[in-house]
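Protocol step 4 of 5: obtain the predicted structure for the target chain.
Materials: sequence only (see below). No template structures provided, no constraints applied. The aim of this step is simply to have a reference model before the mutagenesis design in step 5. Sequence pasted as it appears in the construct record:
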Amino acid sequence: MADHALLSYESLGGERHRHRGVEHAHPHNGPHTHEAPHAHHHGHGGHGHGHSHGLIDESIKRSREGLRAVAISLGVLGLTATAQAFVFVLSGSVALLADMIHNFGDALTAVPLGIAFVMRSERAERLAGLAVVAAIFISACVAGIEAVRRLIHPSTPGHLAALALAGAIGYAGNWIAAQVRTRAGRRLDSPALIADGAHARADAYVSLAVIASAIVVALGLPVADPLIGLAITVVILRITWQSWLTVRGHDHHH
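Step 4 output (structure tokens):
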């Protein structure tokens, strides 16, 4: 009976073929009924679904992630610098002033970087990197001038416990900001963010110097405060150079 049915299909000009190991026969040469839904289903499962993922552009994802890193570090450093400013008014420490100026400058470097990520422009990002380097250099100059001025006109910082606490706050704030920036910078291959991470990490060491300053002044060596301020200036200048190499090196690479 089956053979007879097959013969009658073929005699009507149909075709016979194998599908998934089972032999089928069709009464005409048009589209096969079992093939059409299969093709349709495959289109949804393969290409259709694949395209829906492609709608989120890589540059948009990158700018979102970059902005998030910039915003978090801006908030952390803003709070850090504000807390330190309050202690500086109490203590008048040059080492703390150097650290505080640097923290405010460091927080502000988030602005050009944030703009660059919003623009999704690699050129803007490189320019933001140069702005970061300039901000580090300016903060080094301000800290250095203040340290020299305090060496010429000495005065002993007060509220040493508060000063040591301000150093600890500075260390914690900068360490968090450095982690956020460096990780995002490496993940997004952003030399400007990596330079900003190095900037914050160095600031963490500068904050440790503020704690050292509180200790040496407590031991009866007030002259150590502006000297530590000068040492901080040297550290900041070194970071300026390293950050410049990071940003410029990527510029040549491209």
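Step 4 remarks: Confidence is low (pLDDT under 50) at residues 5-12, 34-54. The longest strand covers residues 15-19.
Proceed to step 5.
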